[in-house]
Design goal:
The structure is a homodimer. Chain A is an alpha+beta fold. Helices cover 37% and strands 13% of the residues of chain A. The first copy, chain A, has four helices and five strands; from the N terminus they run H-H-E-H-H-E-E-E-E. In chain A, the strands form two sheets. Chain A has a three-stranded antiparallel sheet with strand order 1-3-2. The radius of gyration of chain A is 16 Å and the shape is globular. Chain A binds a DNA duplex through helix 4.
DNA sequence: ACACTTATTACTACTAACTCACAATAAGGC
DNA sequence: GCCTTATTGTGAGTTAGTAGTAATAAGTGT
């Protein structure tokens, strides 16, 4: 019953810092987004239910919207895809999206670096 | 009963050139998009019904999709907006979208010209 | 001019991805 | 432990479509 303690405390502190109550639903959603970055609300619901089975879809929508407004989560909306969420909010990275399978990959901004586009592999379907 | 004759004949010829049958539904949709560029399917339906009242929404969706596939119409999908359609398909212009009212303005590509961004007015809400 | 074939359109669901209103619950301050 | 009110749950509603099939009519051939 002590797994995820570190992460939970960190998220709880962030919620309190924003004047929000620390609820198991918010912690479950935050943990789920952290475990599955670039996921849509539906997948976040499924992932969060593994640790909080009674969570509802509507709560996930509300929590995701609220935490996004607080900048604790970031939402992005690729065309022809539901909105995706991630916990990485401290920087301004880009997203490379595979046109064939929709997989998303973070691409760091190269501020202060020369852009180094070397071909190290492909971004092709993994499913 | 002879109004729109020129446009109708031109559209009819284009449809035949693509091996499509010339129907009053297609002509009504094409005329509506021409009269109201940058419009969503719902507005196109309303506009087309002024000359063909028995037209249904589903036919408009089918016709718009088919004519878009033929490149007789162009579809573009701004975020948080339904798909918009226009008849201007021969070039590769851009769209400036007002973040406050959603109004869309064509912006020509300046290939072969120096970009000349002079402030001639605003792109603010008209409603 | 008429029949005929099949492209086209209409009608009836059904869907995804949400949003809204309101009742039930529970977190955190006292 | 109680109480206030933020939060969550429940159920219905919305937007912007897609899918499946039946009805219609455009264009071709005679």
């Amino acid at each position: 019953m002590m797994e995820h303690f570190d992460g939970q405390e960190a998220w709880a502190a962030a919620l309190r810092a924003h004047g929000r109550r620390v609820t198991k639903q918010r912690l479950a959603v935050l943990a789920a987004v952290e475990r599955h970055p670039h996921s849509p609300a539906e997948s976040i619901l499924a992932a969060a239910r593994s640790e909080l089975p009674e969570l509802t879809a509507q709560s996930v929508y509300v929590v995701l919207g609220d935490l996004t407004d607080l900048h604790m989560l970031r939402r992005f909306e690729p065309p022809h895809s539901p909105a995706l969420y991630e916990t990485r909010v401290g920087d301004n990275h880009h997203h490379a999206i595979c046109i064939s399978c929709g997989r998303v990959e973070d691409v760091d901004c190269a501020v202060g670096h020369a852009p180094a586009l070397r071909r190290t592999g492909t971004l092709m379907p993994s499913r």
